[in-house]
Amino acid sequence: MQRSKMVRRFRALLIANRGEIACRVIRTARAMGLRTVAVYSEADRGAMHVALADEAVLLGPARARDSYLNIERVIEAARRTGAEAIHPGYGFLSENAEFAQACAAAGIVFVGPTADMMLAMGSKSGSKALMEKAGVPLVPGYHGEAQDDATLLRAAEKISFPVLVKASAGGGGRGMRVVQAAAELAAAIASAKREAKAAFGDDRLLIEKYVDNPRHIEVQVIGDSHGNLVSLFERECTLQRRHQKVIEEAPSPTLDARQREAVCAAARKAAGAVNYVGAGTIEFVSDGKEVFFIEMNTRLQVEHPVTELITGVDLVEWQLRVAFGERLPLTQDQITMNGHAIEARLYAENPARNFMPSVGTISTWCTPGEVNGLRIDAGYRAGDTVSPHYDAMLAKVIAWAPTRQGAIDRLNRGLEETDVRGIVTNIPFLSALVTHPAVRANRIDTGFIERELKTLTPAQAAAGDLELGAAVAAILAEEAKAASGEEHSPWQTFGWMPVGRRQRVFVFRSGPGSEHKVTLHYGNGPATVSTGSGEIALAWFASSGGVLDVTLDGVKSRAAAVVEGHELYLRTHNGRFELHWVDPFGGETEEQTGEDKIVAPLPGTVVALLAEEGATLEKGAPILTLEVMKMEQTLRAPFAGVLKVIKCKVGDIVQEGVELAEVEPA
């Protein structure tokens, strides 16, 4: 946006992004009467944002650099469709000054700050220099131009370890490493530069003093081209993992009214230093006593919905109105705060496998809907494919209530009633996190998740009578549906007979060495099941969407059930359960991969080889690094031994399950 008082209302908007943020922008833009244009890669042909938009343009191959990060193709897509403006969302090109300048040169409105503002504030190094001049308190660190290892090492030693290595152009935890000692710095720099280059096209780094027991506080600001600049209170994003935000809430439960006003005033001062236009976020870190400026994000943030819920402001609408050249709809003293909001990021990842990203096709997508203070911002639906090429975030679950405790309870209920199948998600982890007593009491810092990881990722509980009864009912419901072609059928009576009784045996596994035998008795009289704890009367009714009402000895309970071949997923009031049905007619055959084989857990690109053939390795020693979903994943030795062979090289694009190396036990 050029700083001008001219009002120029455009009619067509291109969204240069994908996933949930593209869907979220499209909904507001269409509500404002704008024609919406999506862009997509070959991997996203059937994506939700493509279906939602009025028009969609193919950019190119799956790799982001060949599609979503290709400035020329995005500009050409706008020209072809007559889009007069481009909203960049967040990530990808949202903080790319070259892109903002290209839009201006093409006569296209960029829904965001000017390139000059972006260069001044979007660079972590540049913004720190500007804030230092303006008198805003900074975390001690180095944000100079020299990027050689020797300079960075001297800077780290000057401020003393531990230090934080950060991508200057980055965000979302990418290109960020905590370094505890000088011996670890060179490897951290190399890894951070690779990751930053892949994610942002810019491998410049800065170094900061690592603040002990830190809290992450950020302030939402927005300015118009008429000189008006306001803040919309603060958010707390302290619950993080690997510097990636997991839970965000507004307002901060840490600040009192005086501190709130002080940090919001500092944020306005920071943005005002460049006469900022558009939406942005001023980020601070606190050690519990002082608050330090760390960076400005010159874009919309993932967590913007919590601000919207406590203020009643649609930030995307405000962005578009500012882009039209209009004044901000409210002045600072007209912006009020009501209640508390909290957001959880739903990811396709497996907490039990060190949060490894999960890819595949979503077979089931069930959320409770946007009712009773609950909001779901989703970018996927049933039938969509989660690709290894992009960020693993599927949706955001956001809750509002008059109080923080009420918002947490509402968020947890929303998580508990959300079922996504076909891929592995972090839903159980999120639920365990928001209900943790320390989180409820706000006794947290940015290292909390790492310290409590075992508590937050417990093993699956043992299936009880309710779960086993529901498993039997789910299988019978699927068989009845297949036999009759109907969702509900008379077979729900378990094959009633006028005389005699029959039985059928079911065997379920819930993990290695864990087997459950259930005997169903049916015929003349009520059906019963024997589970080992006695014989129990069983009745059930299947509703649409895999919901079962299961009655055991007269006590009715609700269960969600998904049957996928021999695999069963159940959700009851006792939790979530994964069971394997040992079908006596199914010919159980399963291949096992030898533990000495190092295989690609997901499709990805080999970016580093960290050991040589013939090397003696300790258990857990790094062997190679893959780039998966824009994040680096290091594969390690499963036991002590010798690296027998490496079957890949740097730059190889490998598919899931491909053998990459072999370790011979010591």
Walk me through what this model shows.
With 666 residues, the chain is an alpha+beta fold. Helix content is 26%, strand content 33%. It contains 17 helices and 39 strands. The strands form 9 sheets. It has an 8-stranded antiparallel sheet with strand order 14-13-10-11-12-15-22-20, sandwiched between helices. The chain has an 8-stranded antiparallel barrel with strand order 24-25-26-27-28-29-30-31. It has a 5-stranded parallel sheet with strand order 3-2-1-4-5. A hairpin with a 2-residue loop joins β24 (501-511) and β25 (514-523). The longest helix has 20 residues, at 465-484. It is globular and about 90 Å long.
Biggest β-sheet strands, sense, barrel: 8 strands, antiparallel
Cα Rg: 27 Å
Instruction: Give the overall silhouette.
Output: globular
Q: What helical percentage do the residues reach?
A: 25-40%
Residue windows where pLDDT falls under 50 for at least 5 positions: 488-493, 586-594
Mean of the pLDDT scores?
89
Comma- or semicolon-separated keywords:
alpha+beta, 17 helices, 666 residues, 39 strands, eight-stranded antiparallel beta sheet
